[in-house]
Amino acid sequence: MKKVVIIAGMHRSGTSVAAQLCQHMGAYLGEKAELMGAARDNPGGFFENIEITKTNDEILRLCGREWYSLTLAEPDYHHPQIIKKIEKLKAIVQRLLLKSDTVAIKDPRISVLLPLWEKILDGLEVETAYIWIFRNPLEVMESLRKRDGYTSKHSLLLWSHYNLSILRFLRNKKYLLVDYREILDNSKVFESFSQIFGRKPDNGLKQEFNQIVTHAYCHSHYSCEDVRNTQEKFLIDLYEILVTRQERKADLPELEEQYRKEIVIPQKKYMDYAVLEDRESLRDKEIIIYGAGNYGKRIAKMLRDLGITRYDFCDRDAGKRHMEWMGGIVFSIAEIENKENVLFIIAVENADMRREIEQTLMYAGGGFSAFATELIWKYTINKPVDIESDAERFTLWYRELKMRGDVVKNACRYPILVYQNGKVGSSTIVKSLWNEGVKNAHVHRFFFKNDMIGELILGENHEELIKNTNVFSSHFPGYVDSIKNRMKGKKIITMIREPIATDLSTVFQWIGSGVADRFFAERLRKGKTFLQAVSELMGKIQNRLFEWFEEELRELCGVNVLDYPFDKEKGYTIISSDNAEILLFKIEKITELENVIRDFAGVSEFELQNDNVGERKEYAHIYKEVKKRMKLPAEYIEYYYCNHPYMEHFYSKEEQEIFLRKWN
Questions:
Q1: Rounded Cα–Cα distance for residues 482 and 259 (Å)
Q2: Which domains does the chain have, with CATH numbers?
Q3: pLDDT tens across 338-369, in order?
Q4: Distances (CA, A) of 220 to 9, 139, 186, 311, 413
């Protein structure tokens, strides 16, 4: 029978060395081009299959997790996308098994996805062996701090999470448990590896083994006593269970309960909303800007404009440590992570990196903010280059016009239009189609009969200017007929979404893009709260979602969607008219409609790739807090949920009841 060896263990724990040893014992890991190459933090190589690692990451994200998350990923095995990922991983393993009877797979992420991987391997009818590598948690902590800038507490909890996940899965199975230090110091490990692979431990093989194993792989040295000195009882208990090989006798429920208590996040860590509503709180805290780069420089300038001149920096780049920068000093996370009256302002533009930093700062002293400082600066500072200045506003407006022109050009060029109001999940469809090689144009509007974006950017008193400068609108002679002729015969994918969520998401999209800056600046300077301004703007755009079907789709195709039956349970309909073929679906049903979208687009394969996800946005924490605190006027809610023709057409009474409970 063929064999698959799974190498499990926390990141930075020696799993790469273990994989390399398996390779020398005869296990097949994949071709060199299929494996992740060496890096500065792992010069010997990672020995990870790139496709497997990528797919594991995708599965974690489908579960709302990342590799650095501290809560268990619990895949929904009935979820269409999870099913596809499992099939993809199964195909990768089958491909590896065609090359060898013994395959080894190493990716630390597997440690928190072991039940899913068992499901994969059970379907292949192979013998499975497990190698569990663990390392002194303080050495792992030191390594993560150097590589990723993680706080001590986060790193130690992550070590606990991975090893506890492995223990939970393996305790009633056969496995080899290896202390990383034993790989470096103990020849018995060589014999144990030999047994797994059915190899005789001859001198030639042992010499190869010794050439791989080198103390150069270990850059920090901590003892069991050092772990005890942390006085972290849960950490000490779990580590000593592993060191003394008592894991099978461990009280797992008790360990899991201790862990749950350890990962409770202190209150008031996300301070974006609090800072936004009480701008003076910036002066009450010791400010640390996380990120000593261009974005950090920009934040420092904003703070100075706001009259705050005392701040320092934190950066994961060891080369910047103690450097003087923009009036502050750059510190490492280790030097400042235990400060209490501190506010970390995350000055990192990459969304994935920002979320990673947020996770680790949850376990530092004080709180953190990501987006509020920039909003406060834009909404309160009154200078010649203020957001309300003509230069700023008109620059933003002409940038908007250029974007509209690019949209029209793409729409003319491509056979499929993803044509919808916006904030209904369209970016996911656009990205997924392009990933399958399907050319498509992302269009929100062609006609702009009521140009809310122009009004927000320039102001209500510039109505004539908006009409006269926007050549891509129904106000320009000949434009409407030209667009109708050019779009005739195209396939259109359009979507509907619960309207209050759409309104709120639209407001935050405009906050993030700068479209709503003038609107918010005016209201906040008059003493209104941020929450009041959000509520007011939602009121201004009420019914914009449904008006789109009249002002855009009906104008372009002559189709009144209310005249066509809609299957509320299946969540979609296909409308054929003289001018276009239209797929219209509820975004709430999107995961069930991959095959429908695939067939409509005329492709053999189609897989949803989530894009433009709200929780990854820089304003995500403010959005969550607003959603939690907002009390919408009864008449606003009733407008949508008291016999609204579009709601009645698209959503069942049960669905509407669920939505209504959420907003009430």
A1: 64
A2: 3-262 (3.40.50), 272-380 (3.40.50.20), 390-663 (no CATH)
A3: 988 899 999 998 888 999 999 999 999 888 88
A4: 18, 6, 18, 32, 58
